[in-house]
Write a structure and sequence with these properties.
The protein contains seven helices and 15 strands. By secondary structure, the protein is of the alpha+beta class. The chain folds into three domains: 156 residues, no CATH class; 38 residues, no CATH class; 85 residues, Lipocalin, CATH 2.40.128. The strands form three sheets. An eight-stranded antiparallel barrel has the order 8-9-10-11-12-13-14-15. 23% of the residues are buried.
Length: 302
């Protein structure tokens, strides 16, 4: 499950350091900020001078104050640019990385101005909010447990790694109340609830094998004498009765009943899935594998 924005940088980031490539990227960001500061300083300086030398007596009392205010602001921006007091420059100079971990929540905020708009991208984990570009935002998972690596001053994301799901309570995959609670929490915007739903999805996927390695054909014949009993995995329990009855508890607590038999070719015949049909199934090492549409579900004898 492990995933990362920059896998080769994870070791350095875990140690609280930037890689050379990350440091170069932050220096480029710092130069952009300092250039913008000087540009705004020039604009404010010109406005201040124009206000001071403009004619008109109606606002003569406050005009010098307004002009001086713009000039002071321009000077402050020049000073910040020269000494590198802006957050990206401080981060580039320090070269440190902080981290936080927890259930992820991410969102965007769009600011409209005139004929243009600006969209900012954010994520939060462990009560720490970080900002990032659109590509990093898309790379982050929608839900789950993550560790975010970020710069201490600008709170900008530099890397992340997806961590293992938190353990689910026993029976969570078959308990409809747990699924309902997680679904309601997700609707209400809970990052922890979204992480629980993601963990449930991963748990179900772990029990469904898309790349089957069936045994040889002569070992795939199902024995009617070996099947009766209870078979289960974390998402379902199926009980085959010796009288040909079958009962199952499926994900979400759904209960189904039906009948079963084994045909002459050793295939399982059952109407448990809603309509009668034959499917491939085999028992090996106390595990029952049922193949449906090229996917295999493995159940263990209880």
């Amino acid at each position: 499950m492990a995933a990362a924005l920059l896998p080769n940088a994870i070791a350095e980031n875990r140690a609280g350091r930037l890689t050379n490539a990350q440091r170069a990227s932050i220096r480029a960001l710092s130069r952009g900020w300092r250039k913008a500061e000087l540009q705004f300083a020039g604009i404010f300086g010109v406005i201040g001078v124009l206000v001071l030398i403009s004619d008109g007596s109606r606002d003569a009392a406050i005009k010098p104050l307004i002009g001086l205010g713009f000039l002071v602001l321009a000077g402050a921006l020049v000073a910040i640019s020269i000494i590198g007091a802006d957050p990206p420059t401080r981060d580039a100079r320090a070269g440190r990385v902080l981290s936080t971990e927890g259930a992820i929540r991410k969102w965007t905020e769009t600011t409209h101005g005139g004929s243009s708009s600006t969209t900012s991208h954010y994520a939060e984990a462990g009560n720490v909010r970080v900002e990032m570009g659109p590509q990093s935002y898309e790379a982050l998972p929608e839900a789950g447990i993550v560790r975010l690596f970020y710069l201490p001053s600008s709170r900008r994301l530099v890397n992340f790694e997806q961590l293992a799901d938190r353990p689910l309570p026993e029976g969570a995959l078959t308990d409809p109340r747990f699924a309902l609670k997680a679904a309601v929490g997700t609707i209400l915007g809970s990052a922890d609830a979204r992480a629980e739903l993601a963990a449930m999805e991963h748990g179900i996927q772990a029990e469904v094998h898309t790349s089957l390695a069936p045994p040889p054909a002569d070992e795939r014949r199902l024995s009617a004498e070996a099947l009766p009993g209870t078979w289960s995995n974390p998402m379902m329990t199926v009980t085959f009765g010796a009288d040909g009855s079958v009962a199952a508890t499926l994900p979400g607590g759904l209960k189904r009943q039906g009948h079963w038999s084994v045909d002459g070719s050793g295939r399982l015949e059952t109407d448990l899935l809603g309509q009668a049909g034959s499917i491939d199934a085999w028992i090996k090492d106390a595990d029952l594998t049922v193949e449906i549409d090229g996917q295999g579900v493995v159940l263990h004898r209880r």
